[in-house]
Task: inverse folding
């Protein structure tokens, strides 16, 4: 027998017999938290998912992820206030990811290459559904119903589809060839589109309900809210949305020397810019809200896309924030000026906040014209019985209303919306709800998932990197036709997607695998069912928590074992 | 964030993890033991070792053997690494490995290297030791190894005290740190003396390559190990490796603490060739040393009302500033290899 020395020996790697996993009192698990961009998007776009796909170089697949929620990305990229970017965790480090420009790039590429929506236009196995109103909510509902296989009839009172996208948004923000391309492609998905068909004039709701299993009502809010100052109204009063529509269709706009527009939404700002470009020397916007800025309370700022506000200021629009019109100065029935007063929304007795005007802060503004743009209400023609006396529908998050169990409502007709993106989200949820009702499945859960905060990320692993800037027409070159904002080049898009933190989701960076002192993280695409590339070997994991602490995106959580 | 919904989600993930089917019932490509063998990296130090949770030294040794590859013979000084990797009859090493005494890792390595040389074999010898076995007890053996120009990489895992025997001060323990033999009290605020400047002593041997590194920067460790083993002759690597138990930190922040040691300038990450400074990891934004100290119980006494506490904090800050000055550590804008750039992750894994 071979004589060994006094020393001992052991075979290589035999420590594997000793399962250090028994030491553990906490275990790491993967958990896919919602990303702020995803949770914040009213349309339900998962920006992180399509950014990840784009990073792999699959542009079409990235677009397919995008349109699984929103069929009109090239459009929303141009008109949405971008809730995703406002929520983006990257803002705490430098600037948010330019998600809307990535969305725009994908949307424009899809138009350029004529990519087909990932659905079968011939599949018609479901029940017929009628969608009333071919605006963003109606188009979205029709599209999602088609994705689920239901035959769809889409009716609209106007000769062309698009709703306010076509009638109220200037072409400088949304070129019509982009809109036409997206809507045109969408309507080819086996949707029966009937233009010039107004509810209450050409068809009756009862007939629609007789012919269809469900009706999705998305009439928008098209009737201007009544406006007066203490009962006084100039004899030649025109309201804002009407003027804007007339300008878009006829190309004509009044050109007084000076005008005051009363309101704090996109209509007010769009109209102000149109009038300024048409040659009105002095354009004032009077709003009860505050102006966007670093210290502004987000609940108390103008309801416009922030960069649209910046462009308006660049173009010379004068904003009067936290003001209202207290008195009109008339000579006969003609306006010569108006009296403004400071006011602020303050919490009053009983918890309800109200707007308080401050005595002694009155100022006079000499203007020849005043245009109210204080919002619109629902024109109930054809469905008076459903709406009653209310200005808007009250509906649950899925669009269900109490006055009918076969009619769902979405878009601006609900008082609690106000963006194209929210309307698209309404269409998607209502389609899912209708599908669930028809098939007897459980209704979709509209509740938003918890999202992951910045302090749950380990940002040591990310580098500061400036946001890619889109091109912008200089003020002097802006016209009534040319789009003001440009897109990004592919190189800029590549830079921008590289800035994504991948909040709450694995980005396969290898950190856990590299930093485990116990070799208890195993790299494997095959076994990692959750889509990450790693699994924990709990036989050896001692539960030190290093992987969770050093995970850049907060995808690993320690939980008591 | 909605915490109840979140808790539910995480509970569900935990339940899934715990109720996973047994390993035996899985097909080979999903079997953990098989997957372990298929990892796209060399495994020199295997799981099942007895290091404490969050051990910086275990991580550093894993990274060193990973980068050095399979054609290696290891020697080891007495210390945690020796104890936790080789509880007889098991070994966590998948490489030939030998331990003799506390003081002679470098001497044993010298003998192994001489024998390999006599046999005409090119296998690389890596000698390992903790800071006790390197700065103090094994110092003469190391100096001799360097002086005789053996073709050996000596790696010192620096956790700044004799942790294996119960946290006694070593020549590497930083100034003012508490150990069981340098307790803060009436006479002193922790260790009276300074951390030994070992790299300068190594530099005085004019060896081809000597460097310091930190477990917070794995890609940097890998690069330095590859560099060192490719050199014919004596090379030296000092790796800063936090000890959660000895430093009084939670096991999950040992990387965080290691990173701060580098970012404050207290642990300079440098490279020396023939004794000359040839490279540093620049610090993009030097952090105050208090950020590093306040995370650790061994410096807890520096955050008391005692006027000496403030003085010692300032002293440590001055030492960090001194390091930044003499090694010219202050970075100059964005740099992919500085303290902020070197650990940047990318989708799809690290590129190095």
Result:
């Amino acid at each position: 027998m071979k004589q060994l020395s006094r020393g001992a020996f052991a075979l290589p790697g035999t420590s594997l017999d000793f399962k250090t996993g028994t030491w553990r009192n906490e275990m790491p698990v993967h958990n896919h938290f919602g990303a702020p961009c995803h949770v914040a998007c009213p349309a339900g776009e998962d920006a992180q998912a399509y950014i990840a796909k784009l990073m792999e170089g699959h542009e079409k697949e990235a677009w397919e992820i995008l349109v699984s929620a929103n069929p009109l990305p090239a459009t929303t990229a141009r008109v949405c206030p971008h809730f995703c970017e406002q929520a983006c965790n990257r803002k705490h480090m430098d600037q948010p990811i330019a998600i809307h420009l990535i969305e725009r790039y994908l949307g424009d590429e899809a138009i350029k290459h004529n990519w087909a929506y990932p659905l079968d236009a011939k599949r018609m196995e479901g029940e017929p559904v009628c969608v009333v109103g071919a605006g963003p909510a109606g188009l979205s509902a029709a599209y999602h119903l088609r994705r689920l296989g239901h035959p769809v009839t889409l009716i609209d009172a106007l000769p062309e589809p698009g709703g306010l996208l076509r009638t109220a948004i200037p072409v400088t923000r949304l070129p019509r060839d982009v809109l036409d391309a997206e809507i045109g492609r969408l309507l080819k998905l086996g949707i029966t589109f009937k233009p010039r068909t107004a509810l209450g004039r050409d068809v009756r709701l009862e007939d629609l309900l007789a012919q269809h299993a469900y009706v999705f009502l998305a009439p928008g809010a098209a009737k201007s809210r009544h406006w007066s100052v203490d009962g006084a109204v100039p004899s030649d009063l025109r309201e804002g949305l009407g003027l804007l529509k007339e300008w878009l269709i006829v190309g004509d706009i009044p050109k007084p020397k000076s005008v005051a527009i009363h309101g704090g939404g996109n209509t007010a700002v769009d109209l102000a810019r149109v009038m300024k470009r048409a040659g009105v020397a002095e354009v004032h916007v009077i709003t009860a809200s505050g102006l966007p800025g670093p210290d502004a309370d987000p609940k108390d700022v103008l309801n416009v896309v922030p960069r649209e506000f910046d462009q308006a200021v660049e173009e010379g629009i004068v904003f009067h924030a936290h003001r209202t019109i207290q008195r009109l100065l008339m000579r006969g029935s003609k306006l010569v000026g108006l009296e403004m007063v400071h006011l602020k929304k303050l919490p009053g007795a009983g918890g309800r906040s109200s707007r308080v005007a401050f005595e002694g802060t009155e100022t006079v503004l000499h203007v020849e014209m005043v245009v109210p743009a204080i919002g619109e209400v629902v024109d109930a023609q054809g469905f008076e019985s459903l709406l009653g006396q209310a200005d808007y529908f009250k509906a649950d998050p899925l669009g269900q209303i109490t006055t009918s169990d076969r009619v769902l409502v979405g878009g601006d007709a609900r008082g609690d919306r106000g963006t194209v993106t929210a309307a698209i989200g309404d269409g998607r949820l209502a389609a899912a709800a209708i599908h669930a009702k028809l098939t007897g499945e459980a209704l979709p859960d509209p509740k938003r998932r918890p999202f992951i905060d910045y302090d749950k990320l380990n940002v040591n692993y990310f580098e500061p990197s400036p946001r890619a800037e889109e091109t912008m027409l200089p003020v002097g070159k802006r016209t009534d036709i040319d789009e003001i904002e440009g897109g990004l080049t592919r190189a800029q898009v590549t830079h921008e997607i590289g800035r994504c933190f991948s909040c709450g989701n694995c980005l396969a960076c290898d950190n856990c695998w590299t930093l485990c002192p116990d070799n208890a993280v195993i790299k494997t695409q095959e076994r990692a069912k959750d889509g990450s590339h790693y699994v924990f070997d709990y036989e050896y994991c001692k539960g030190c928590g290093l992987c969770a602490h050093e995970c850049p995106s907060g995808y690993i959580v320690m939980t008591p074992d | 964030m909605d915490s109840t919904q979140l808790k539910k989600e995480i509970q569900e993930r935990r339940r899934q993890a715990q109720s996973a089917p047994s390993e035996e019932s899985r097909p080979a490509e999903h079997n953990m033991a098989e997957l372990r063998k298929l990892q796209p990296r060399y495994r020199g130090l295997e799981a099942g070792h007895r290091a404490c949770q969050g051990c910086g030294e275990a991580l550093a040794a894993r990274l060193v053997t990973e980068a050095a590859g399979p054609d290696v013979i290891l020697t080891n000084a007495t210390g945690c690494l020796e104890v936790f990797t080789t509880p007889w009859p098991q070994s966590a090493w998948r490489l030939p490995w030998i331990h003799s005494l506390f003081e002679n890792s470098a001497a044993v390595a010298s003998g192994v290297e001489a024998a390999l040389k006599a046999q005409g074999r090119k296998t690389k010898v890596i000698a390992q030791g903790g800071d006790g076995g390197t700065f103090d007890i094994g110092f003469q053996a190391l100096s001799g190894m360097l002086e005789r120009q053996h073709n050996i990489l000596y790696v010192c895992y620096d956790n700044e005290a004799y942790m294996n025997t119960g946290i006694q001060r070593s020549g590497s323990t930083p100034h003012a740190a508490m150990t069981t033999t340098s307790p803060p009290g009436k006479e002193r605020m922790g260790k009276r003396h300074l951390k030994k400047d070992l790299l300068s002593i190594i530099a005085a041997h004019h060896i081809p390559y000597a460097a310091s590194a930190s477990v917070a920067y794995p890609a940097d460790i890998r690069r330095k190990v590859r560099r060192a083993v490719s050199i014919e002759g004596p090379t030296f690597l000092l790796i800063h490796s936090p000890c959660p138990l000895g430093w009084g930190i939670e096991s999950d922040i040992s990387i965080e603490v290691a990173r701060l040691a580098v970012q404050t300038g207290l642990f300079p990450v440098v490279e020396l060739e023939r004794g000359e400074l040839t490279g540093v990891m620049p610090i993009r934004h030097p952090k105050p040393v208090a950020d590093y100290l306040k995370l650790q119980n061994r410096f807890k006494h520096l955050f008391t009302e005692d006027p000496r506490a403030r003085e010692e904090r300032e002293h440590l800050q001055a030492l960090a500033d001194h390091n930044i000055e003499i090694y010219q550590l202050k970075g100059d804008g964005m740099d992919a290899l500085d303290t902020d750039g070197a650990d940047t992750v990318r989708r799809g894994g690290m590129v190095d």
Summary: The mean pLDDT of chain A is 93. The radius of gyration of chain A is 28 Å. Chain A touches chain B through 69 residues (CB under 8 Å). Chain A has 18 helices and 19 strands.
